[in-house]
Amino acid sequence: MSKVALVTGGSRGIGAAISKALKDAGYTVAANYAGNDEAAKAFTDETGIKTYKWSVADYDACAAGIKQVEEELGPIAVLVNNAGITRDAPFHKMTPQQWKEVIDTNLSGIFNMTHPLWPGLRDRKFGRIINISSINGQKGQFAQANYSAAKAGDLGFTKALAQEGARNNITVNAICPGYIATEMVMAVPEKVRESIIAQIPVGRLGEPEEIARCVVFLASDDAGFVTGATISANGGQYFA
Ligand code: CAA
């Protein structure tokens, strides 16, 4: 029987590429999403991958969502914590609400998803947790005090939990994408985006599939000795 993989924010952007790549690699995939019903429906129509709606910022909704996925598809072996949002603003303009929304989704979201799943992974003595952090959690980014703090927090979470999971064959790793050609990056003003691309030695934005291939490797049995690691996939923009 194929292993079950759950991808948060799995119907759009990098998450959609991850869901598809895991399906192509033989997993039964569940794609979680929070809001965009239309995109989720189009994604299921195109790929045949089931989508499940809840917010990763809500602990009880995560626990219920995981239960539903496991009842329908079987025990989850691979969790990809990909869901993320931006609320960019220079710090002097950043509101407490912009801070809270980003921390709740991008940092607490990975706790909310991993915590209810953890006892099952320990019992089954196998698991793969893959956290999608960001180059901006490694280097910081102007107008992203909230996002950079959350994404740096994701890396600390990864390293701590890797130590706890190791004896039960649960690996916990992070990927730090650089600037990838998704709606999130396309929302950055064009002039700013051009100046960012000028800082990428390979001279282009990354493709979502380039992140998805890293996920497929970390999820595989071959990656059993890789845990607590951070894979930077950023076109040479920053060496952590
Ligand atoms: N470094 C230094 N100064 C910068 C800067 C930078 N990187 N970016 C902008 N500034 C300056 C501007 O030049 C401008 O200066 P002046 O006032 O002297 O002209 C000032 O900051 C901007 O001030 P505004 O009051 O006009 O700013 P705003 O309230 O309109 O906000 C912004 C604009 C939100 C900062 C906008 O420029 C922006 O979105 N920047 C991009 C931020 C970014 O890179 N986000 C990453 C999104 S992608 C992502 O997050 C995915 C991932 O993981 C990689």
Automatic annotation (TrEMBL):
Residues 3-178 form the Ketoreductase domain. GO terms for molecular function: acetoacetyl-CoA reductase activity. One of its GO terms (biological process) is poly-hydroxybutyrate biosynthetic process. Keywords: Oxidoreductase. The keyword Oxidoreductase applies. It holds the Pfam family adh_short_C2. PROSITE patterns: ADH_SHORT (PS00061). The keyword Kinase does not apply. GO terms for cellular component: cytoplasm. It comes from the Bacteria. Belongs to the short-chain dehydrogenases/reductases (SDR) family. NCBIfam families: AcAcCoA_reduct (TIGR01829), PRK12824.1 (NF009464), PRK12826.1-2 (NF009466). This is 3-oxoacyl-[acyl-carrier-protein] reductase /acetoacetyl-CoA reductase. It comes from Paracoccus homiensis. The lineage of its organism: Bacteria, Pseudomonadati, Pseudomonadota, Alphaproteobacteria, Rhodobacterales.
